[in-house]
Amino acid sequence: MTALVRAAVLLALAISNTRGQATQDLPPAQHSHRVVLDQDNAYVMLWTPRQDAIEIEVQVKAKGYVGLGFSLTGGMKGADIVLGWVDDAGRVFLHDRYAAGNWAPAVDESQDVTLLGGYQNDTHTVLRFSRPWITLDTDSDYMLGDDTVRVIWAYSNSDPTSETELNYHDKRGTKSLYLQSPQFELPPLGPDVKSVEFLSRNITIPSDMDTLYWCQLFKIPNVTTKHHVIGYVPVLQQESLEHVHHIVMYVCDLKDGHDQYERWLEWEGTQCHTGNMPPSWKFCSPIFAWAVGGEGEMFPEHVGFPIGEQGKATYFMMEMHYDNPNFREGVVDSSGVRFFYTDKLREHDAGTIVFGHNVSPLHIIPPVQRWQSSGYCDPQCTSQNLPAEGVKIFQGLLHSHLLGDNLILRHGRNGQELPPIMKDMHYDFDYQNTRILKEEVTILPGDSLVMDCGYNASQRTSATYGGFGTNEEMCLTFLSYYPRTDLFLCTSHPELDTILGGLGLGLEISADNRDEVNKMLNYKIEMNWEAENKLFEKVKSGNLSSEPSPLIMSHILKAINITAPQKYFNRSLYSVLQDRAIWMDEGVTSSLQKAVLEGKHTSACHLHGQDLLLGKGGTITAPDLQPLQESLPEVTFMHSVVLDQQGSYVLLWTPRKEDVVFEVQVGTTGYVGLGFSPTGGMKGADIILGWVDTSGEVFLHDRHAEGNSAPMLDQSQDVKLLGGYQNDTHTVLRFSRPWDTCDGEQDYVLSDDTVRVIWSYSNRDPTSETNLHYHDRRGTKSLFLQSPQFEMPEMGPDVKTWEFLSPNVSLPNDFDTLYWCKIYKMPPTTTKHHIIGFVPVVEEKNAEHVHHILFYECHAPDSDTLFEQHLEEQGAQCHTPNMPSSFNHCQSVLIAWAIGGQGEMYPEHAGFPIGEQHGGATYFMMETHYDNPNLRQGVVDSSGIKIFYTEKLRQHDAGILMIGHQVSFTHIIPPRQESFLTGTFCDGSCTGQTLPEEGVRVFQGILHSHLLGTSLLVRQVRAGQELPMLLKDLKYDFNYQSTRVFKEEVTLLPGDTLITECYYNSSQRTKPTSGGLSTKDEMCLAFFSYYPRTSFFSCLSEPKFDGIIAAVGVTDVAHDRMGKTTIEQPEENMTERKERDMTQELKETKFSDFYHTLKITAPEEYQNLTMHDILYNEATWQDPMVADSFQRLATSGIHNVICSTNGQNAGVEISKQVPYPSYKSRRHRPDRCSQLGDKGSSSGLCPPAFPFCKNTKTRGTFF
């Protein structure tokens, strides 16, 4: 680390700077789906859904880049985007990206698309790739499924100037699709198939209404025998595409209605659901429904909808829903449908049933809410009207209006919930396509159906009601089934009293008013031939006014007059509901939500051919259904992680005050294990093991492992099962567990320290609770269970990115550690900017080798002269004579990342300034620590860091303070020690001289040591009194070093002392370990981010050197650099040589080699030996007093403290000798288990060789 060491080992390096991309071949492929995404036919998307992934091909009339994305809203913000192009050399590029806003999408850290090929010709760019339905990148990728997917697309006629610089697209758009459902195809039709078109007769859409429902009557021509309708397609007039929203076709087969229907055939029709609509038309029942986005339907080969004399249906009513939100004038439409029918009858007659919520003004959706409405089908209706063997559902259409967000048709039988018949969790009002079910579903007599509709009314300022208008709402499902029955509608809506009581306002109305309103709401429609005849005469004579008028169903509520309480006296219910103030009361909305879902409903059950329709069939409530065994209540977890590389084991958790809730989702139908281990192995691990048997019963055990054998049941079962299920592919278990169970013998204490999580699973259940098969897969991963998890926020357009990557560094294969340093310059800016965060950019192939990256600010007089010359250079091995001496001016850390970290986003009130003129730096040095323990050959890396910066300045400039032990050969860890403590400190005189009077606020930190580190902590002492621990990790993992964001910021005042303690386990080493750069050497450091920024950047200490030689019995040594504890390289001229010798081989840097240069002159018995001979002689350490001497040296006596600040364009380093601090330790509060009398699930930190630790009043533990 440049800020810590200057080594004296020679090196040379040759770096290759070549990179290439192969041209991709693209053999022909047959795809199952195809769609043209734009109106110009320039963008064609083809795809084939497979079991685990989707294969996509885009064919775009462009010679630049092409983008295809998946968006929750149809917009760019938050979209998951695949972007690619083919350059002039024929190289194909493909990126998995994420759009944080309406600007160039950033490349994902996890590239989850696989390029299958691509090419470009004179006119088109073609790309083929695959992508899993569900990726592991939950932050940046969209989880695809069988719900509506809003596909967004874009293309440009020019390639990007680089992989990160995109020019603005030329064309873009969006289209909703079902990616998994079968696509509509019009098959070749035989000579037996006839067609007939039913078209509107030039209907003029009014310009003063946004919604018009128009009804017209038709007749199948020349059909005297039974036929089957086998399909249809919409026939849409191009000029009115935006206005035709849906079409519902009804069959009209009222008894004795033949002559009545016949006379209406020449009439152009009328506005539906008004007094101008003939009474007989109200008895027509739906046969099928088409809505915008649909292409048509061809029914399965074994079913058809019956028509003709024996099929009863000869007359049809077409209901057109016209939408005119912009009130366009002069819109005239003649759209409709084309039927396909045949006299070759299918096996079954088909029918349509409508389920859901009655279209009613009592369908109330409060403003500024996410809301759920439900409609129920009374089991008595299905019991009385379905055949004993039930009916088979083969397709369906979900329907709501603009607020619809998610729609589910649930199915219940005998009190047990069954899998939903249909669902769409991303419903799109403008894409309502009939879904063919993958498997037909049987509805039996007595089954209950529940239609749940989720609405997003967050942008509405007043209540929304059920009705026909686009701005009103519906909640319906149209299901096609066979064999046909007379049942065509089964719905419900809340009763008036349910609404009045549910509002919780004490509303009352008179009995007369209640009866009057209920007559309107609970309609009773009888066929009135006399009224129909009178209407026909008016039409025939031309005396019927046909001017459409708005049909606002909620105005019925104006007839409900409130009589109490006084506050609402003499107001209508409509007036009360329009009062925004009532909806600001959460008690009102929660009470109404409960009432409409659990209160009394009025049911409706309608049959074909009836001449009486009743709006009230009976009073019902929501069916009491036991939840699906294979489902759990929806829970949003705070944290999630994929534990294995295959994505088969997902762990989710939410930390709470006393316990933690876990959920495991594992791709197996056998048992699942999750454990917590002190070492990452099975021995001594605390294990939770569970499974779901074939009957659906869930088992969960608290166990412990004494070795590499089946874990045994704990005497105390300290996990609580919250639920679980198993389906065809996965086992899911949810449970809670206290942080400390007080079972000190068999359970692991969870905390904010690193936790080594172990996992396993088998593809078989245990044969008994005690007989387990050996697992099929297992692994381990370290985690912080309590710390906030890194999340990439949405970035505004002001945020820019800057990537700095290693220049194809070749790792040596003859030693295990390489530190590589390279100079970079900030992006050109004319104003002050703040760095607001960063993420690592680590090449996946080299993830095991990139151990940590430090990014330093460079401060020196005339920095342009010193550093500009190095920008184009490849860099150099750090801390060697081959590293330019100017690099030594790069000492203050700006970014510290280590393996296991995902990145950092700083608080909204703090940012790191860049630019010398703005209090930051203009030049930077990146130091990359490469680890190659297996000495692999041919490793070449270009990893680095991506910085996010903005000109929107934060409130405070931030800085980083590094504290700990000087990385030096004075850092000695004796061998064979289970717990050796290195103490180091930043004394109060240093903070007193460098911090402002009001202090600084520390908001995050990261701890760092190497392989021997087991526990690291930083104490804060003020005026001799220990304060709460600043940062700790008592289960430190070298391979999991992630920045900790503090739950609460900590103030550091002038005069505070910071003590860094690092505990090491060297029990497997036979020789001492020295401080140094190698992974096998050691460090003891902490990096803290704080504000407001000061010049203070480093405070390190080390024991006096004469104490080291005295600890091994040496009294004098000879060396011309006796006072130095680090090795400095010669200073170069400030202009530095532009050309330097880069032919030297890379060599391992070991600080302990310095001891070879120290010749012992006393005592006489050691003469002619070096300090290295004594220190690294195993016999030296046979005497336990030697290790004890080093322990005392590390934690007492006089230490050298180096206090470093940035002066004007240069670093200033002050070194002084200070005694190890003493302090009064914190009073320890008893924990939960101590209060319960447990003999101890917690442990102290004092090492065995340090007996006075537990007795002295000047030292405390972390508690």
From TrEMBL:
<dbReference type="GO" id="GO:0042421">
    <property type="term" value="P:norepinephrine biosynthetic process"/>
</dbReference>
<feature type="region of interest" description="Disordered">
    <location>
        <begin position="1222"/>
        <end position="1242"/>
    </location>
</feature>
<dbReference type="Pfam" id="PF03351">
    <property type="entry name" value="DOMON"/>
</dbReference>
<dbReference type="InterPro" id="IPR036939">
    <property type="entry name" value="Cu2_ascorb_mOase_N_sf"/>
</dbReference>
<dbReference type="InterPro" id="IPR028460">
    <property type="entry name" value="Tbh/DBH"/>
</dbReference>
<dbReference type="GO" id="GO:0006589">
    <property type="term" value="P:octopamine biosynthetic process"/>
</dbReference>
<keyword id="KW-0325">Glycoprotein</keyword>
<comment type="similarity">
    <text>Belongs to the copper type II ascorbate-dependent monooxygenase family.</text>
</comment>
<dbReference type="InterPro" id="IPR014784">
    <property type="entry name" value="Cu2_ascorb_mOase-like_C"/>
</dbReference>
<dbReference type="GO" id="GO:0030667">
    <property type="term" value="C:secretory granule membrane"/>
</dbReference>
<dbReference type="InterPro" id="IPR008977">
    <property type="entry name" value="PHM/PNGase_F_dom_sf"/>
</dbReference>
<dbReference type="InterPro" id="IPR000945">
    <property type="entry name" value="DBH-like"/>
</dbReference>
<feature type="domain" description="DOMON">
    <location>
        <begin position="647"/>
        <end position="762"/>
    </location>
</feature>
<dbReference type="InterPro" id="IPR024548">
    <property type="entry name" value="Cu2_monoox_C"/>
</dbReference>
<dbReference type="InterPro" id="IPR000323">
    <property type="entry name" value="Cu2_ascorb_mOase_N"/>
</dbReference>
<dbReference type="InterPro" id="IPR005018">
    <property type="entry name" value="DOMON_domain"/>
</dbReference>
<keyword id="KW-0472">Membrane</keyword>
<dbReference type="GO" id="GO:0042420">
    <property type="term" value="P:dopamine catabolic process"/>
</dbReference>
<keyword id="KW-1015">Disulfide bond</keyword>
<dbReference type="GO" id="GO:0004500">
    <property type="term" value="F:dopamine beta-monooxygenase activity"/>
</dbReference>
<feature type="domain" description="DOMON">
    <location>
        <begin position="41"/>
        <end position="156"/>
    </location>
</feature>
<feature type="signal peptide">
    <location>
        <begin position="1"/>
        <end position="20"/>
    </location>
</feature>
<dbReference type="Pfam" id="PF03712">
    <property type="entry name" value="Cu2_monoox_C"/>
</dbReference>
<keyword id="KW-0479">Metal-binding</keyword>
<dbReference type="InterPro" id="IPR045266">
    <property type="entry name" value="DOH_DOMON"/>
</dbReference>
<dbReference type="GO" id="GO:0005507">
    <property type="term" value="F:copper ion binding"/>
</dbReference>
<keyword id="KW-0186">Copper</keyword>
<keyword id="KW-0732">Signal</keyword>
<keyword id="KW-0503">Monooxygenase</keyword>
<dbReference type="Pfam" id="PF01082">
    <property type="entry name" value="Cu2_monooxygen"/>
</dbReference>
<keyword id="KW-0560">Oxidoreductase</keyword>
<dbReference type="GO" id="GO:0005615">
    <property type="term" value="C:extracellular space"/>
</dbReference>
<protein>
    <recommendedName>
        <fullName>DOMON domain-containing protein</fullName>
    </recommendedName>
</protein>
